[in-house]
Amino acid sequence: MSNNELIEYVENYTYIELQLTMNQALNHYESIEGIDSKYYSQFIPEKAIKQMVPRLAMNYMVSHICTDKHKIQMGVENYIKENYGIDYMKMLLKRSVSDQKIRILILDDFFDVIKTTSPYRQVKDLNFWFDATKRVKTNLELQHYVSRDNLPYFVETYAPDWKEQTN
């Protein structure tokens, strides 16, 4: 394997390992926060990960002179786990995610559901629903209402006067 091929191989495998570690961090974040990872996944700091790859690959190659692909894979995997593991990725993720950004995404899904669910879709003024969602204290609770099955509970709790809006 030439030096360029070796560098490319280590960089590709470093990128794969960083992505796997970020996915583990996402899953961990979801289990702690309770918010579906689909709301977090678009905030993955992809640019930061791509920028890290050449430096990490070079650091690994300088300290581990090897041309065996299997040994490189194992070495890169261990190097990433030891130096840029799940805690590091959670920190990157936390920096790029805000509760407000997550709420906007949940609200998008909420409005998609309420606009297509009978009888609630009879309310033409979406500001009525938006004002009701403002009273939901947490993103976790709001996420709970983003389904046709749970929508009646939202209406009962936060918009019991919705029928008045259909006139």
Largest sheet: none
Summing up helix and strand content along with how strands pair, one would put the structural category as mainly alpha
- 3D shape: rod-shaped
Provide the gyration radius in Å.
Answer: 23 Å
Poorly predicted runs: none
Number of helices: 8
What does this molecule look like?
With 167 residues, the chain is mainly α. It is built from eight helices and no strands. Helix 1 crosses helix 2 and helix 1 packs across helix 3. The longest helix has 31 residues. The N and C termini lie far apart (74 Å).
Question: What secondary-structure arrangement, pairings included, does this model have?
Answer:
Elements: H1 3-33, H2 46-63, H3 69-83, H4 86-96, H5 99-114, H6 126-133, H7 139-144, H8 151-158
Helix pairs in contact: 1-2, 1-3, 1-4
Which key terms come to mind for this protein?
167 residues, mainly alpha
Could you provide a short overview of the structure?
The protein has helices at residues 3-33, 46-63, 69-83, 86-96, 99-114, 126-133, 139-144, 151-158. The protein has 167 residues and is mainly alpha-helical.
